[in-house]
Known about the structure:
The complex is a heterodimer of chains A (710) and B (221).
Chain A: H1 2-16, E1 21-29, E2 39-42, E3 48-50, E4 56-61, E5 65-72, E6 79-85, E7 90-96, H2 100-103, E8 112-116, H3 126-130, H4 138-142, E9 167-171, E10 174-175, E11 198-204, E12 218-224, E13 232-238, E14 241-249, E15 253-263, H5 265-270, E16 276-293, E17 299-316, E18 324-344, E19 348-365, E20 368-386, E21 392-408, E22 411-431, E23 434-445, E24 450-464, E25 467-478, H6 482-485, E26 494-506, E27 510-526, E28 542-558, E29 565-579, E30 595-605, E31 610-619, E32 623-624, E33 635-636, E34 640-653, E35 656-665, E36 675-678, E37 685-688, E38 695-704
Parallel strand pairs in A: 1-7, 9-12
Antiparallel strand pairs in A: 1-4, 2-3, 2-5, 5-6, 8-11, 9-10, 11-12, 13-14, 13-38, 14-15, 15-16, 16-17, 17-18, 18-19, 19-20, 20-21, 21-22, 22-23, 23-24, 24-25, 25-26, 26-27, 27-28, 28-29, 29-30, 30-31, 31-34, 32-33, 34-35, 35-38, 36-37
Chain B: H1 2-19, H2 23-35, H3 41-58, H4 62-78, H5 85-102, H6 107-123, H7 125-146, H8 152-162, H9 172-188, H10 201-213
Amino acid sequence: MKIIFTALFCFIMPVLLLSQTKISGRVIDSENHPLPGANVFIKDSYDGASSIEDGSFSFTSEEEGSVILVASFIGYKTKEESIQLAGADINIEIILEEDAKELGTVVISAGSFEASDENKAVILRPLDIVTTGSDADIYSALETLPGTQQIGETEGLFVRGGSAAETVTIIDEMVVQNPFYSSVPDIPSRGRFSPFLFKGIMFSTGGYSAKYGQALSSALILNSQDIAEQTLTAINLMILGFGGAHVQRWENSSIAFEGGYYDLAPYFNMVEQRQDWDTPPIGLEGSMNYRLKTSKTGMLKAFASVSYSDLSLFMENLDDLSTKNYFGLRADNYYTNLSFREILGQEWTLFTGASFSLDKNKYDLNTDKVNQEEILSQGRISVTKQMFNNSFITFGGDVQNLIYKNIFDDLRSRIDEVYLAGFLEADIFFTNDFAARVGLRGEHSKVLGKYNLAPRISLAYRIGTFDQLNFAYGKYYQTPYKDFLIQTTDFDFENSTHYIFNYQHIDDNKTFRIELYYKDYKNLVKGNLFTDPFIQPEVPFSNNGSGYAKGIDIFWRDRETFDLTDYWLSYSYLDTKRDFINFPGLATPAFATPHTFSAVIKRWVPAITTSFGLTYTFATGRPYYNPNNPEYLGDKTKNYNNLSINLSYLTTVFNSFTVIFFSVDNILGFENIFGYNYSSDGTVRMPILPTSKRAFFLGMFISVGQASPY
Amino acid sequence: MKTSLTILILFLTAAGVHAGDGKYEKAMKKNLSKIDAAQDIGSMLDIANGFERIAFAEKDKWLPYYYASFMYVLSSYTDTTTGKADSYLDKADTFISIADSLEADESEIYTLKGMIAQARLQVDPMNRWMKYGQVSSRSFQKAMELDTLNPRPEYLMGVGLYYTPEQFGGGPVTAKPLLEKSLDKYNQFVPDNDLMPTWGRRLVEQLLEQINEKPEETPGE
């Protein structure tokens, strides 16, 4: 009996007194600060505890032997350590490392402004684009950022001394040949694409990535919205016309149809226009947008748009003031963009895309007829592989076929270009505070019969939680403008070299950035284009042009100091000279001026659910060509001033969520002059003015039957 | 001899029973019972950690992931000063995705997804109402389709509407019918087991009290 009892004791007691080990210690970061709220536990068991205020933790475990101790905490890399549990108390200090991805550490950003909801360190949100400026146009909104020039008589982004042709627009990784409605002399056209189509906008004023090319100055990179969230119907009523859209959402896909008709005649009757219109602009446009989630991580996007527009007007004939020049333009545009993105395995991302665009412009110039047709087909593939430490490498290629046909009365000309490009780029995060992007881009042009190789590098160094230093260097090549290629193809690529350095501070509510840049232009094309005043004097074609642009851009944004108010200030200083097209030597071009300043202020008034906005822009005078001045481009216009206001009133009308938008451009009526046109003999001149002294816009955007989110 | 052997066997069996069965239910209930008392960030994260440990240990049970996600959503509402709300909601997103992959087409999961979207909206309403308003609406619709007896979608929609300005179709008047429907469903709700979510009823009652106390506004347009 006694023996059995003892045996029982020896067997049972160890089982009942299940060995318990006490594990305690502290959780800290690499700078010895305590981390409260971390989860410390034995892998595959419930045993564990949270660290408290001072980082200490303590718990007991009945596990035995070799186990893994895990410590996890938001914003830090989870740590695992092998420990032995044998009853004796364990005291352990756990040091956790910051997780780069979670904190959105140092971001490569020299020379660029990004607007998206996804990245924390962005300067703008997509909604900012819609509520800035007077016409909900992406390009107008970007003109309030430093680095852009105020060129009111023509469309396009003129960046840091570059012409509008030096900026490329990219949608979903593919080039858009004509992002604006067709050009009319001395009248700016709108962008074709509504800002609502995009979830992210990256505007680079220099130093852009090796993934893109064919732009000497800047790139506007637009990423379209993903799958639509909800089925809804929208109606737009505007002073310029009306339109509507319907979005249908299914489980894994969505489709949106949108269309609009505009006619400026009623508006021109209300607001006196300086031009002498024959047929005020009318247009019809429609688009379709399809999204399909092919898998948990895959997305197929298809976009197609069609637009038709017609206008005609009488333009001043400075050589014979008793007559006028007739200008008529009928434009048709088809654009389609197909792209597919998928994540393969743990480390690879694949992107492929194709796009097609057809632009047909029919001009009536007095008795001459000009037909222009531009067809661009392109394909692109890009592969990204994740590497150590959040670094990744991207490589891929582009192929583009561009056909340009120009028929001037009986004179036919045509360009057939095949453009090939390949790129390789690595984003390397050496530490959480220092990153580099190194890339190489190679291009070949069939029309020129030449190739180029462009190295690019960007560095970002974080010096404080919200402070960063950035540097970028890059070479950029561009095929000469098609109006030159029509005349001869004996050219080389034009090129520019960028050197950019900036300091920026971005926290939740305040942004400050100061950027210095130097751009060196080489091999700029010299020669004459078709249009006045470039026909005289005769200049032989060559790549002997050159130039430079240097300056400082400053940006300050504050969303915190004033209640419910968001404002930003931009200032640009630009010093540039170039010798290109038919310039007799180096001169400051007509699209550059030394000082530009913009202030944008927005205030939300909750009591009347209205957002008020105000934009003031100032620029010093621009050079203009005066045939009577021996100094080429030696004259300057007077300074430019513009104050515009807008308001957005949010309400519900007939159970439908509605936004009423109203804006007035140049409300103070400044008499701005963009330049002068001269007669052939230089004795008569006329100022190039905005299309009207003041402009206003009124629109109502209704989401049918959607009074509230629920 | 026989008696001692029996006692020995009984002891050993008892020890075995103590070590395995009901461990999951016990741990879950222990953490669930702490939720109501948790008023500050520290306690909420502690409970989230508790559920996280259970989730990782069990691996194939969706409820601990669901509750961990839920605690992170509550944390994002409680911590309004440090700017970490989005980080908490990132964690909430991660956990609810895992829960969804373990238990497809579960009404409570879609309800919580809607709640996460509402919380995202709260962080930056001016810039996010368009996107997250739609996302949460879709999730709640799906949650109701999957289980018409679940009172929580209408509770959350009612709360959302209550705090939405009247100009956008929100306010107490439009919130009231949703909250009343929700309360009806709470009165009839029977959870599938005693670990399934039952939260929310008290806030519905409180809100309805507040709405009924207010004098009737003259009807708007």
